[in-house]
């Protein structure tokens, strides 16, 4: 998400880090960029478009309820990288 989008949707306080995923959404001709960030506070102030914002452990994530394939792919790469302790930049084609 863009920093403004993260603030608008979740009201999260964070520090931007490096580029993490570049996702080519083929069917709509879009490229989505996701960045890593460091959360500065566990308090959220969701905007009017968000019903709830909270943190999940990896095992608590409702994988089947994630609306966007790009978000799901990014989370899968994040947890795989976290297990190895090395974060890279991932490029993915989303059909």
Describe the structure.
- There is one protein chain.
- The protein contains two helices and three strands, in the order αββαβ.
- By secondary structure, the protein is an alpha+beta fold.
- It has one domain: Nucleoside Triphosphate Pyrophosphohydrolase.
- A three-stranded mixed beta sheet has the order 2-1-3, covered by helices on one side.
- β1 and β2 form a beta hairpin.
- The longest helix has 16 residues.
- The chain starts with a helix and ends with a strand.
Helix and strand arrangement:
Blueprint: H1 3-10, E1 14-25, E2 30-39, H2 69-84, E3 90-94
Parallel strand pairs: 1-3
Antiparallel strand pairs: 1-2
Which fold name fills CATH's third level, the topology? Nucleoside Triphosphate Pyrophosphohydrolase
Q: Roughly what is the average pLDDT, rounded to an integer?
A: 92
Q: Helix amount, in percent?
A: 25-40%
* Distance from first to last alpha carbon: 20 Å
**Major sheet size, sense and barrel closure:** 3 strands, mixed
Major β-sheet strand ordering = 2-1-3
CATH superfamily: Nucleoside Triphosphate Pyrophosphohydrolase
CATH architecture grouping: Alpha-Beta Complex
How would you describe this structure in keywords?
95 residues, alpha+beta, Nucleoside Triphosphate Pyrophosphohydrolase, 3-stranded mixed beta sheet, 28% strand
């Amino acid at each position: 998400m863009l920093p403004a989008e993260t603030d608008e949707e979740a009201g999260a306080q964070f520090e931007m880090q490096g580029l993490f995923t570049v996702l080519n959404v083929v069917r709509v001709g879009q490229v989505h960029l996701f960045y890593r960030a460091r959360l500065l506070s566990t308090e959220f102030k969701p905007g009017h478009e968000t019903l709830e914002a909270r943190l999940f452990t990896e095992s608590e994530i409702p994988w089947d309820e994630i609306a966007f394939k790009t978000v799901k792919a990014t989370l899968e790469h994040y947890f795989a990288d976290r297990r190895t302790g090395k974060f890279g930049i991932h490029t993915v084609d989303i059909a």
